[in-house]
Amino acid sequence: MGEKNKQGEEEAKKTPTPHDEAFKKLLQTFFAEFIALFFPELDKLLDHTHTRLLMQELLVDIVGQESRSLDLLIETRYKLLDAFILVHMEPQSYNQSDFNERMFIYFSRLFEKYRKTYKLMIPIAIFSADDVRKEPDTLKMGYN
Q: What is the widest separation between alpha-carbon atoms in the chain?
């Protein structure tokens, strides 16, 4: 029986905790408070009276072979530019080795689609896995 419990614990560690949906709902409701708490300098630059959640965004690659849905895309007003900006928030509750690449792809597709409409786009990843880990926050390309 001890071996079965150990196996069950191992499987539980491999199964991602479903935090994403809960975070999406919380962030939709408490966007201004989240920004104020975790990004106080950015908060001073935003006018939250003009904040709205955009519809679920589907991003398709250039040749149409792959599409991805963004978790949260929020439009808000940026005081310094006197313009609307996009804030893309991506809750992530499981380990994904190429997550930094996925965030780069999201950003580049948003930029391609909205660069003439929005003066600034801010991507924010929110990690909520049970284990603490170092996540890459850049994407580097090169050759050997």
A: 65
At the top level of CATH, which class does the domain 49-130 belong to? Answer: alpha beta
Residue 70: CB partners within 8 Å, gap ≥ 6?
A: 56, 57, 59, 88, 90, 106, 110
Average pLDDT on 41-56 reads: 89
Domain definitions of the chain by residue range? 49-130
CA distances from 118 to 89, 113, 125, 136 (A): 16, 10, 20, 27
51 alpha carbon, distance to own chain's centre? 17
Percent of the chain, pLDDT > 70?
A: 76
**Calpha distance 73→57 (Å, rounded):** 7
pTM, entire model? 0.73
- Dihedral sign, Cα of residue 136, residue 75, residue 71, residue 28: positive
| Helix pair 20-29, 31-38: axis angle to 10 deg | 100
- Measured distance between the N- and C-terminal CA atoms of the chain, rounded to whole angstroms: 51
**pLDDT tens readout for residues 55-104:** 766 666 666 667 767 778 899 999 988 899 999 988 887 778 888 888 89
Distance, in Å, from the CA atom of 136 to the CA atom of 138, rounded to the nearest integer, reads: 6
